[in-house]
Amino acid sequence: MVQRRKSCLTSSCLRLRLSDTLDANSIVYYLHRVEPYASKVKSVLAERGDLAVTLRIVDEVVFTLIRLEAWRRLGIRKLDQLREHIRKHGLNEFNDVINDVEEMIDRLGIIVLEDKGGLTEILETIGKYSLLPGDALIAITARHYGIDTILTFDEDFKQVPWLKVTP
Fold it and tell me: Is the pTM of this model over 0.70?
């Protein structure tokens, strides 16, 4: 079932032809115009359709952007300080970075996929390919949906046999 923002929260997404997923670092570099990475991401986005991200990737992007903004605007570098700030003041001052992610997903028609995988599968993938847990979940989710390419600057995904890393 495809929902608003082309979210895909059931296995019926398998009927869609998804070929590429965007990793968190490629989105962060693109949104923050970090060169030369942003230009590479822009060229890939211009060439490809049917792009997807997982909920895990969206979580990682939003978290990273909030941390960057907290550091830049407020001088907050430590996670416990950020948590305390959010408890006291809420997330309103970070709405612009959250909205940037949502607007990018909407503007580019990126499909948001539900994460897939079980505990055993994640632990085996972590061990077999030396991935961090979040990256293992992304790799497993990509395999579940038949996604064969990931746009990332993370070398770790090159060890995953079912994923081609680009650029």
Answer: yes
